[in-house]
């Protein structure tokens, strides 16, 4: 016997819903009222599986006036295959903001999906990409996907996909490959074995791995930090390898591709266009100037593949506020201790002498150059970093190019070309081996010993920082202190532990594996006052807004984008504090910080303030830094900070490049403003999706009512205190693991919307606790042996009706069939529906849909005896056969609405001959019967 998707069967003493994975010899089903974790398969040759019908309510088990509303909300909140325009929304662990539907709607208009998501930092690009992937999976259009990203954010992606989209992806990193390969069969690749993978871009881009990945790559690929895959000008290096990898993946014309970046231009128009070509090869022929009415159609073509919004564009969108914190920025300064200043001058003189030696070959000159920069940067950072650099032998390179590559990696902050991973080690700067007795060796050792003597009391930078951090903590802020090098971070953390009483100070650097970094950060949740000292290994990847609300730049970055990344860890959606602080800290007499501040950081900040978004450094940062230090080390024009350190013409040139980059960004946002998706389209689909699965307001009302009806105590408005002490054991047994509460803990604080603080629990629509509560309410109503807060029937006497009116809560199950060529693919969709009629079933006067919703809010005005209630409900059940034709009509009509919604948002598929049809179960389940009697 075969069973249709969505049909009801009985096996092992209970009813089950048949799922699309069913085969001719195996029925895959979910228990009626159960969750995805209860799905089971039944092998027909040995299991007795029979068709089943849904039983009508028992009139003797009538509930009160809350029952219908509770039951309806529990049903919708328990759906995992909802109706509405999107298949995925019942499976989300996050309620999307209205603006986050724009990329989803844009993607569903494309086939294949080729989209560049370039929204501003902190808006939620990961959620936007995840929505698209989850929807494509639930529509049956893809079975596999891969995320390409920098290695340090791979675990962040894994956690986001698991918690928000219920997708368990494997990490493909150097440290995991061996384990994953052991799980593969002979001649089976990792990408065949595991359908969902998160892959280090830099690991897989190597020639020996790239070809295998391209051959077995999934149908959909997300490329995070896509600007690092834009075409580089020199046609070599890591960026070029990344571009070649993604270009090969894009070469499959059927592959879906999402490019994700907050900086699509990377300061370079050619790089931006190289990303567009990955979306559509015809973009290679774009005119140089895209402005003007003659290029309107070209711009519209690009806009169909490109979405880019600033915070200001979405803060108030479709009457929904998305709260972002206000960023308060301030500069703080320090002056070096006299002994520190003397050592700084000695190191500077040594560096000048070192790079001025013209007798060396080019290779040695480049090594000397990078060693000098390393010494100066470490001196500006801390005595600990200076001591490490002075005592470590400089890089060993065989060619000038190799010396430059190693030096750039160790000293500079190359955000666009290289990740922050592994670059926080203090650079080497000693010309000779430690202990060398030459003049240079003795000189280096003397300076290293002097640096060691500056720890603590003679470190004015640290002393001033302690006072600033004490003020922050006293004002209620929990700061992150960003340092450039590992020795600095460890030294600063150790000193702060001594000086900040009653404050927990933790240090996190690149010495720790990513998982341990995250664990150390999360452990701070239990500490009321906390300071996190870290390197740039945390400047991207781990979102820290739930624990911290201030950033203190102990060391200036030499790349403005890195500063923005640091501040973006706390200044983002979901930050519970209304304000965040960003403190830029620099020395006014250390001869380095002032130049970096004037030429790079302040310019970047001014542009971000005027434009509303950040733009990358519009020139090669190495060129700027090299010019700065050539002036300092070779020309010696000026000993203090400021642009006078180097050629004023270069200052003017950089300034002009900043202005040009700003104008390009303004023009880009004007040319490619997102007009493909109309606001009214977003409103329509958002309302339809919310009606199908329930909104955040539904969640709050349901949770409060269900818990109170279950004898729990619920107090508070935004932050809600919930006490489960008096709740039934069966409910607590389900809620405790879902909430993550330890045994015996009965009281907790929750919110129904972001932001939440570290000790609060978010109860979103798809949070495990809300799902557990919904399942408890529904299962208790379906099982007469359980004492739940809702019943499947009831009678209410109220002034809201003039004659006897019956409300029916219906559950529809639909079989959505997608046909492409000769292949058909089934999907299951579930829907709830309220209908109402006046009079008896034999002479039913069916009422408009809005009447049924209004009756849900009715409260009793008089009592109804149990005997009366039973009689009225029995009359409805006895007349059920007279209702069946109309219920069948409702099912057909709902199916047509579902078909329209399903097809409407996936317009592109129709162009390829893909067709859909919806088959409704002949009759919906009558889940609830509620009779409303007029007030006597």
How would you characterize this protein structure?
The protein has 936 residues and is an alpha/beta fold. The protein folds into five domains: 1-53, SH3 type barrels, CATH 2.30.30; 59-81 and 767-934, no CATH class; 96-308, Rossmann fold (3-Layer(aba) Sandwich); 342-452, no CATH class; 456-671, P-loop containing nucleotide triphosphate hydrolases (Rossmann fold, 3-Layer(aba) Sandwich), CATH 3.40.50.300. The chain is built from 32 helices and 30 strands. The strands form six sheets. Strands 8-9-7-10-11-6-12 form a seven-stranded parallel beta sheet, with helices on both faces. Strands 15-20-19-16-18-17 form a six-stranded parallel beta sheet, with helices on both faces. Strands 25, 26, 27, 28, 29 and 30 form a six-stranded mixed beta sheet that branches. A hairpin with a 7-residue loop joins strand 2 and strand 3. Helix 2 crosses helix 3 and helix 15 packs antiparallel against helix 17. The longest helix is centred in the last third of the chain and has 25 residues, at 880-904. It is elongated. Residues 461-623 form the Helicase C-terminal domain. This is Helicase. InterPro entries: DEXDc_RapA, Helicase_ATP-bd, Helicase_C-like, P-loop_NTPase, SNF2-like_sf, SNF2/RAD54-like_C, SNF2_N. GO terms for molecular function: ATP binding; helicase activity; hydrolase activity.
In brief:
The protein is an alpha/beta fold.
- The secondary-structure class comes to alpha/beta
Coarse morphology = elongated
Radius of gyration: 32 Å
The unreliable regions are: 636-646
| Ends distance | 54 Å
Percent helix: 40-55%
Strand % is 15-25%
User: What's the architecture of the largest domain, going by CATH?
Assistant: 3-Layer(aba) Sandwich
